[in-house]
Specification:
7 helices; about 25% helix; 6-stranded mixed beta sheet; about 15% strand; alpha/beta; Rossmann fold; two-stranded antiparallel sheet
């Protein structure tokens, strides 16, 4: 909600409707969405799955909004330059996350938990980062706030249904690229793209670990 209040500003009223309720409007303006990802298509005859489509124009409008203060954030030197995103979830976990975290910590990365931060803090954290490493998850949506030079490493499992282009498409829409490190799925109750997986520490790219 913090991001919504920042976008609306103090002069606009935010009306929260309960589920199943409608609101009659004499005049309605609809903002362009930054991305479109149809996870469950209505037409079952379509093959494959969507990797998401993201709008550079909408992202540029968002990133240029005064509420984010990205120009000021870029001058904030107390935020860590290299961050490792700790994932606290019951799905898509890295089985050897502790060893992986220690590896990045030994290379100067700060371990962070974005879900424990406010929206404004997350914007400042990612806009000052020069290297980011983390497992596929919602926290990585913050890569849109990173500078184009930021190195982004994403851990993700090997699966034919995985939307590998999802994060890449989002990154490209804001002038960045990502590096994937693929992990072998672990045998667990949760299978498919949500299965936990392990990462071979020897497969970690030196271009990510060695960022200064």
């Amino acid at each position: 909600m913090e991001s919504l209040f920042l976008a609306a500003g103090p002069e606009r009223e935010i009306i929260v409707l309960p589920v199943g309720r409608a609101l009659h409007c004499d005049e309605l303006y609809i903002a362009s969405v930054t991305g479109y990802v149809p996870f469950e298509r209505r037409n079952n005859s379509l093959s494959g799955h969507s990797h998401g489509v993201f709008s550079p124009l909408a992202f540029n409008a968002l990133l240029g909004h005064p509420m984010l203060g990205l120009k000021q954030n870029a001058k904030d030197s107390h935020w860590p330059k290299k961050i490792f995103l700790r994932r606290n979830s019951e799905i898509r976990n890295v089985v050897n996350a502790t060893e992986l975290e220690r590896m990045f910590f030994s290379h100067g990365y700060s371990v962070v938990e974005p879900e424990r931060m406010t929206f404004s803090q997350q914007v400042k954290l990612f806009s000052n980062a020069r290297a980011i490493a983390g497992s596929s998850g919602a926290a990585l949506a913050n890569i849109i706030f990173c500078p184009p030079i930021t190195k982004i490493c994403i851990f993700i499992s090997k699966d034919q249904e995985t939307s590998y282009w999802y994060w890449q498409n989002m990154a490209c829409a804001t002038g960045k690229t990502v590096t994937y490190v693929l992990g072998e799925k672990n045998k667990s109750k949760m299978g498919g793209i949500h299965a936990s997986f392990s990462i071979d520490l020897n497969s970690l790219p030196s271009s990510i670990l060695g960022v200064e």
